[in-house]
Amino acid sequence: MCVNRSAAILYSLYLPIHHGEIPLFSTHDLPCIQYNATDNILWRMMSWMKYWEKLTWILPIHWPSPCGHWVMCTIDLVSQCFFLFDSFVEERPWKQEIQVGLF
User: Fold this and answer.
1) What angle do CA 55, 61, 62 make, to 5 degrees?
2) Whole-number Å distance between alpha carbons of 10 and 8
3) Which long-range contacts (CB under 8 A, 24 or more apart) does 60-68 make?
4) How confident is the model at residue 1 (pLDDT cuts 50, 70, 90)?
5) Strand 81-85's sheet: what is its strand order?
6) CA 57/CA 9 separation, integer angstroms
7) Residue 26's pLDDT band (boundaries 50, 70, 90)?
8) For residue 65, is pLDDT > 50?
9) What pTM was estimated for this model as a whole?
10) Is 48 strand, coil or helix?
C-alpha cells in the first residue's frame, strides 16, 4: 500500500477527534525541500496545515534501502524529541545513520 494512502487513512481517522492539532506532512514535502524547491512552492504545499502553530508533527520518511522502506517520525517540539517508528528496526538498526544536532 502506498504510504500516502496510509497517511490519508491515518489522517481521516485522526481528524474528526483532534481537529487538525497535528499536521501530517506528505511524502512529497521532504524531496521538495531536498531539491531546493522555492519558498513559494513549499508555502503552497504546506501552509494549509499551519504546522508552525502545532506542537507535534507527523512526518513519513523514505528510508533508502534495497526494498525502499518507510518509517514514521513523530516530532514533539515541546520536549524537543522525535520518535521514530520503524517496523524493520530489528533487521537494520538506524542509530548510526541519524545525525543529532542542537538548535
Assistant:
1) 175
2) 5
3) 60/3, 60/4, 60/7, 60/25, 60/26, 60/27, 61/30, 62/3, 62/27, 62/30, 63/94, 65/92
4) very low
5) 56-63, 69-76, 81-85
6) 16
7) confident
8) yes
9) 0.66
10) helix
